[in-house]
Amino acid sequence: MTGVNEVQVVAAHQERATLRVGDMFLKVDADQVRADIEVAAMTSAPIPTPRILWRNPPVLALGALPGAPLGCLGQPSTASRAAWTAAGATVRTLHDAPLPPAPGRSPEQTAALLDSECAWILEREILPAELVARNRRIAESALRPWKPVFIHGDLHIENDTVTGVIDWSEAASGDAHFDLATLTLGHRSHLEDVLSGYAIPVDRTRIHAWWSLRSLLGIRWLIEHGFDPATPGCEVDVLKVQAGWGDSGRGGVRG
């Protein structure tokens, strides 16, 4: 490649890394099953996704999508309400598509995982027991049976641009409310904008439940992969807001 002045590390941890080289993203993933799922999801998704340039395991090369993300983690979004509404319409299009090959977790599997993650947090005294208990109660509404749809599985604001959606490694069949919650977790003030674009009735209580559930499930993974869930605007802040311990109007909280 010519005209490339630097290599940008977009994300890196023990499981995988993403590098940006010019207008190309290089995803290095030792788990080829997960990489297969990502390629299959991008191929079948009925919405704009990165173009697959080439694949030479463990590396997957993707073209960059134009446009800017809806926001940055831990900071207020500068995107317009129209952009958030368009994101909601895009998510609806995805959820209306035929199911992808990956089955995703069942409600029973999710409940068992939540129990084990809460126990891990409490045993190590990472969070106050009352904070965990309050969010565990809120999360229960997300564990009711759901009608599976094609979900992105990691639809936080940095994966959603005005023109398309990136990072499909967690794509599977699952609860539509999970994607809506993940997209709006750090920017709950834009929930109504997203739902305006989504254009069909949803259970807002279930979205709130996924905010708590996703945050509780993320604590151990973040710590074990070298991230701090207590960084301002991250998972611990989300749990505090959910429990009424923080400022529910804070625009930069994410999960």
Automatic annotation (TrEMBL):
Q: Name one Pfam family in it.
A: APH
> Do you know which InterPro entries this protein is assigned to?
Aminoglycoside_PTrfase (IPR002575), Kinase-like_dom_sf (IPR011009)
Signal peptide positions (record): none
Taxonomically, what lineage is the organism? Bacteria, Bacillati, Actinomycetota, Actinomycetes, Mycobacteriales
Q: Protein name, please?
A: Aminoglycoside phosphotransferase family protein
Ranges in a coiled coil: none
Q: Which domain of life is it from?
A: Bacteria
Q: Report domain Aminoglycoside phosphotransferase positions.
A: 38-184
